[in-house]
Amino acid sequence: MNPYQHGEVFVTKDGGETDLDLGHYERFTSVELTKNSNITAGRIYYDVLIKERKGTFLGKTIQVVPHITDEIKNNIYRTAEESKSEVLIVEFGGTVGDIEIYPFVEVARQIYLEKGRENVMFIFVTLVPKIRVNNEIKTKPTQFAVKELGRIGIQPDILVLRCEEDLENEVLEKISMFCNVQTNCVMKAIDVDNIYKIPIYLHNQEFDQRVIERLGLLNNPIKLDNWYSLINKIENLNKEITIGLVGKYIELEDAYKSVIESAKIAGFHNLAKVKIKMINARKLNNSNIQEQFRNVDGVIIPGGFGYEGVEGKILAIKYTRENNVPMLGICLGMQLALVEFARNILNYETANSTEFDPETDHPIVHIIRGKSEQDEKGGTLRLGNYNCELKNNSLAYECYGQKIIQERHRHRYEVNSKYIKEFEKHGMIFSGINPDNHLCEIVELENHPFFIASQYHPEFKNNLTNPNPLFIGVSEGAAKYFGGYNTVVGIVTNLMIDLNITVPVAVHLDHGSSIESAKKAVDAGFSSIMIDGSHFSIDENIRITKEVVAMCKPKGISVEGEVGLVAGEEDGVHGGSAATYADENECIRMAKEGGIDFLAATLGSVHGHYNGAPKLGFEQMVTISSKADIPLVLHGGSGIPDADIVKAIKSGQSKINVNTECQDAFAHALNKYFANKMDQADKGYDPRKIIGFGIKETKRVIIEKIKLFGSDNKA
């Protein structure tokens, strides 16, 4: 499929090559779908043609109705039966009125007739444009589309209005009347800065409630704590990293949709905003590579086919290897990492893949065994899930934390095993091997911060709650501003010696994103670990936390666990909203079962700045503190009135985080520094003087907080 027309090809676990929309469904729902979940018109017509040639229709005239429509219906019914689902969501992509979609719309009408009104509902997503010249909202396109659907025999139960900005109630009422849809079933889906906010936005309009009522489903409590937690992370990212994506289809980002989304999701879990810089592999050369990679914190070399852009990707890999830039290679990216290494380290100047040079003297990569260079391209790929066994003490094993993994593939070429020993002699580690056919799956480089490449596509097995470990790895690698955990411990340790600091100092990992990151901090010498599993279910959160406790307790390292959502100022959830308060029973479970030393229970606080006055759950603090018998931690302590801080301490809070106020103090000091032109006098441009001015103001705030907390002169 042409990437410029279709975007990426998303691969399912059973090897289906599907539309990229299926990737969105997997990332949102955390459900692994199959190739049956993707039905195309081409496939339907092909299957009907094959049946006709086999005589299935006994020579009858082939018609759109019933032969094409029956084939579509049978595919839908088979998917429902095989998945054993209670509810099947069927998306008919297209535009009402287009000739291509008519067979599918007819199928929708027939399913409604066959299954009954009580078992089928129609949700129509429609665009409501705004004319910029006069700021007029146009509802006619929606009215005509609904009218056309009615002519075919379909009446929407819910309308979802795609629009750039909020719509007035009178617009919704107008659409409701002319489209014959209840007003409370006309929903808005306005443009948002992050697509993962859409479920919350629809939930706030009771979209889910309308579906439950219409289909007569069990009205169980809707639990969105994990989703709110994710949105809170997105709204409170505390660092920004830039990932360079070196590809040849960069004009259309959808060609790398899953890669881009996977990188962003991994960033969320590392509390980092990931910016993607698209770098054109076809135009990358020695004269512009320094400029192209300026301010790039990590690099991804994605998969692809064909020679165009290959030399640019090889040059990018060479740059990351020589300059210690974190690099993740995917599929072709792994193959080219080996070609680059062979050319520049093994001195095989003509090394190549037989895909690009069939006559190369050093075929580092060649066609998969059992295939042929002369085979037709269709149907010759290695597709879907395959096992991979990881090497102990490797970076891959560190990322995944298990011996056997299963990932999705889409490739026609493989690593030539006869060169493996030569690679290993020079520092290339083959850390992942397929245990069944012994094909190379993962390579990594010794003595490099993060240089790893996989034959499989990790972006296809990645969702919001379980980001793929390789993307987590490249995100964490790019986010280490201080050079890593060891550097931080070294700085603190030596400052204590040089400054003769006698009070106890804890080196604390805040919001540790995984067991692996906690282990790195422990190994480096951190004395306090917070493991944040709040975005998981309480059972999974406790399981992860217990593993960290088991690792830390023998070394005398304290562990802090977290339960509940810490809202952010942009969440749309403030003050007394239930979404900002942890469940008391879950908090008590974490304290009793997790074995932690401190509990960060979310009770009305906010990371960052507050939108309005904070409303802390003092009663819950007292209850949890007494029943759990554990010191509480108040995240988001900045901006809370002094009287409330004192009351929170009396209610059981033993540790209070005030990072935002410290950052504000530093920023305001620097604004004052430059506004007063202090940088223009007495060598005021010296970074040490500039930073020192900010530090002085930050220290003032810290001293005030120590006194407010009643902690002065107690060390």
From TrEMBL:
GO molecular function terms attached to this record: aldehyde-lyase activity; ATP binding; CTP synthase activity; identical protein binding; zinc ion binding
Example GO biological process: carbohydrate metabolic process
Alphabetized UniProt keyword annotations: Glutamine amidotransferase
A Gene Ontology term for the protein's cellular component: cytosol
RNA-binding keyword on record: no
CDD domains: GATase1_CTP_Synthase, TBP_aldolase_IIB
KW NADP (keyword) present: no
InterPro entries reported for this sequence: Aldolase_TIM, Class_I_gatase-like, CTP_synthase, CTP_synthase_N, FBA_II, GATase1_CTP_Synthase, P-loop_NTPase, Peptidase_C26
Domain CTP synthase N-terminal: 1-217
Record Pfam families: CTP_synth_N (PF06418), F_bP_aldolase (PF01116), Peptidase_C26 (PF07722)
Name this polypeptide is given: CTP synthase
Lineage, broadest ranks: Eukaryota, Metazoa, Spiralia, Lophotrochozoa, Mollusca
